[in-house]
Write a structure and sequence with these properties.
The protein is α/β, with parallel strands linked by helices and about 375 residues long. The chain folds into 2 domains: about 200 residues, Quinone Oxidoreductase, Chain A, domain 1 (Alpha-Beta Complex), CATH 3.90.180.10; about 120 residues, 3-Layer(aba) Sandwich (Rossmann fold). It contains 11 helices and 15 strands. Strands 3, 4, 5, 6, 7, 8, 14 and 15 form an 8-stranded mixed sheet that branches. A 5-stranded parallel sheet has the order 10-9-11-12-13, with helices on both faces. Helix 5 packs across helix 6. The termini are close together.
Length: about 375
C-alpha cells in the first residue's frame, strides 16, 4: 500500500491562496515546472462571493495538453493546477447563486460541466462573436494558481468557479468517463463543425485519431457525411476509428471537408492537396509551436477554399457537445476510451502510465481510495 500523501509545508502560502476565515483544506496537485513531480498542497477552502460556486471534482481526464506541459513540450503558467476536462458536483453556492446556460440557478448536488474559458461578455471580441478569445479571458486548468482563485484546475479535490462561467448540468445517464472530455475535445469538435456548416452528403477527411478525431468521425457520421476517411500513423487508432464510423476507402475525387486534429504540418500539406474545389479546411490541432506550412495563394483562390482556424469554443458549442453525447454515446464506444483510472494521490503514476502507453485518456478521480484502484 502506498504511503499517505503529506502536503508540502507552506505550499499554500506560496500560491498566495490563503484568506481569513477560509474553511477546511482542499488537496491539490500543483505544477511548478516541467519534468518535476507535481507537488501536493493543502489549500484553504475559499469563502464564496456573489455568483461563485465551489465544486467537488468527481473525475478529471488528462488531456494531451496537460501531458505536454508536464513533459516540457508546452509552456504553461506556474504554479498552476492542471486539468480542465472535469466533471463535478456542486458543493456550495454563494448567497447569489450563479445560473447555468439555461438560466436556472445552481444548487448543491447538481452534476455539472463548464466551459474551459471564462469570458467577460463585454469586450469587443465578446460582442463581436468571439467570446472564446475574450480580451480578459480566464481558462480553467491553464491559468496561474494564485489568490482566492488558486483552486482553478481539475487535479484537486475541488475547484472554485468564477462568475460568468458557462455552466451546464450533466444528465445522470451520461457516464463519468464520457462526460469529462465534453468541455474540451467534444466542444472543440462541435466548434469545428459549427464553423463549416452542413457536411451532409460530403466527403470528409480527418487527420489524427485521438479523442478529437474519433469524436469528429462520430459527429460526421451522425450529420450525414457521405464518406469519412481518417489518417493516422498508428494502426490501432485507425482500427478504433472504424468503430466510430470511419469508412475504409478513400474517394479519389477529393474531399469536400478537411479537418486537422493532428497538428502535423506534413500531414496538413499532404491533405490539402486532396481538397476539392470549394472545400472547407479546418485547422484545430496546431496549438503548439510548429514549422511553417507551404500554402499556395493561387491554389486557394482558384479552388475557392475556405480555411478556418479553431481555438477554444463558444458557449453554444459546449451545449451542442453535451447534447451530442447524451444522444449518441451509446452508439459509439466513448466509455472505452478511458483505459485506466487513478486516485489524485496517484497522479504521478497516472502521468507515467499515460506517457508510456499513450492511451486516448486516463482518468483521475480524487475520491478514489487506493483500495478501489
Amino acid at each position: 500500500m502506498e504511503e499517505p500523501i503529506t502536503p508540502e509545508p507552506g505550499c499554500d502560502e506560496a500560491l498566495g491562496s490563503g484568506e481569513e476565515g477560509a474553511g477546511e483544506g482542499v488537496l491539490a496537485a500543483v505544477f511548478h515546472e516541467a519534468k518535476r513531480p507535481l507537488e501536493f498542497c493543502l489549500l484553504p477552502q475559499p469563502q464564496l462571493q456573489p455568483r461563485e460556486t465551489l465544486v467537488r471534482v468527481v473525475c478529471c481526464t488528462l488531456c494531451g495538453s496537460d501531458l505536454h506541459t508536464i513533459a516540457g513540450r508546452r509552456n504553461e503558467w506556474s504554479p498552476s493546477i492542471l486539468g480542465h476536462e472535469i466533471l463535478g458536483v456542486v458543493e456550495e453556492v454563494s448567497d447569489e447563486p450563479p445560473l447555468d446556460l439555461h438560466g436556472e440557478p445552481l444548487k448543491p448536488g447538481d452534476r455539472i460541466t463548464w466551459s474551459i474559458c471564462v469570458s467577460c461578455g463585454r469586450c469587443d471580441r465578446c460582442q463581436g462573436g468571439l467570446p472564446q478569445k475574450c480580451r480578459h479571458l480566464h481558462k480553467y486548468g491553464h491559468g496561474k494558481a494564485e489568490g482566492r482563485f488558486a483552486l482553478s484546475g481539475g487535479l484537486a479535490e475541488a475547484i472554485l468557479l468564477r462568475p460568468d462561467s458557462t455552466i451546464i448540468k450533466v444528465p445522470n445517464e451520461l457516464p463519468d468517463h464520457v462526460a469529462c472530455p465534453a468541455n474540451c475535445a467534444t466542444a472543440t469538435v462541435m466548434a469545428a463543425f459549427n464553423a463549416i456548416g452542413s457536411v451532409e452528403g460530403k466527403r470528409v477527411l480527418l487527420l489524427g485519431a485521438g479523442l478529437l478525431g474519433l469524436t469528429a468521425v462520430a459527429v460526421a457520421k451522425c450529420r450525414g457525411a457521405y464518406a469519412t476517411t481518417v489518417s493516422d500513423p498508428a494502426p490501432e487508432r485507425l482500427s478504433l476509428a472504424q468503430k466510430f464510423g470511419a469508412d475504409v476507402c478513400i474517394e479519389s475525387s477529393g474531399f469536400d471537408v478537411v479537418m486537422d486534429f493532428s497538428g502535423s504540418v506534413d500531414a496538413i500539406e499532404s491533405a490539402i492537396e486532396c481538397a476539392s474545389i470549394g472545400a472547407k479546411i479546418v485547422l484545430v490541432g496546431s496549438v503548439m509551436k510548429c514549422d511553417d506550412m507551404k500554402l499556395n495563394p493561387e491554389q486557394i483562390i482558384r479552388k475557392c477554399w475556405q480555411i478556418h482556424g479553431i481555438h477554444n469554443y463558444a458557449p453554444a458549442d459546449l451545449l451542442d457537445a453535451v447534447q451530442f453525447l447524451r444522444e449518441h454515446h451509446q452508439s459509439y464506444p466513448f466509455a472505452e476510451l478511458v483505459s485506466a483510472e487513478f486516485s489524485l494521490e496517484q497522479i504521478d503514476h497516472a502521468i507515467r502510465y499515460a506517457e508510456k502507453n499513450r492511451p486516448i485518456r486516463v482518468a483521475v478521480r480524487p475520491g478514489l481510495s487506493h483500495a478501489d484502484h
